[in-house]
Amino acid sequence: MPSAKQRKSLDKAVTAYQQNLETARGFLSARKISRELAQLWRLGVVVSPEVGHEPYVGRLCIPYVNKLGVVAVKFRCMADHDCKAENCPKYTQPAGQEVLLFNVLAVEDDADTIHICEGELDTMVLSSVLGEPAVGLPGASNWQPHYPFHFKGFDRVVVWADGDKAGKDMAGRVRKELNNAEVVPMPQGHDVNSVFVELGVEGIRKLAGVEDE
User: Fold this and answer.
1) Which residues contact 36 (CB under 8 A, 6 or more apart)?
2) Residues 73 and 150 placed together within one structural domain of the fold
3) pTM of the full structure
4) Measuring CA to CA, which residue among 159, 149, 89, 147 is closest to residue 123?
5) Is 175 helix (H, G, I), strand (E, B) or coil?
6) What span, in angstroms and rounded, lies between the C-alpha atoms of 120 and 88?
7) 190 and 110, same structural domain?
8) Within the chain, what is the greatest distance between any pair of CA atoms?
């Protein structure tokens, strides 16, 4: 965990990058992430980088926040290309940064149900659409041995599995370790955000088994 001085530096960087959010308008709009939602999660864009963040110019900054404040940052490519084909890391982070759950504060919510998905944007969408706590794994393979302890206080744990092998593997791993886990499989080739873009709020709520009044 970063020191108080490091957390202060991270918060300063995130605050500065938030001022450049307009730069990400096209990227966020294509994913139906509203400006209000982006501001709520303190998203920003690296334009004038803080020391050490020079490699991330032009990337979306996604802060990881816990009770101590900003404890980590991830940077997402916003270029309109196939990152794999271009040998471009879609997500990257400073060297040595710990692997953390995104939106870990959600595990302290007084709720019966919590949702687990892969990725930060998916977490934002689920939390907004369903109005229930949600956390994100930073990649399907990044389930950590201590994570089950975070979910002991919930009656239901809903795992949103991306529609690919990695998503299915993640769901299987979580179900193996949490006997109260339920799986919501995404259509082949889709994740939560792409379903939201294609089918809207109704599509997500239908997959969640929520019936509108």
Assistant:
1) none
2) no
3) 0.94
4) 159
5) helix
6) 19
7) yes
8) 51
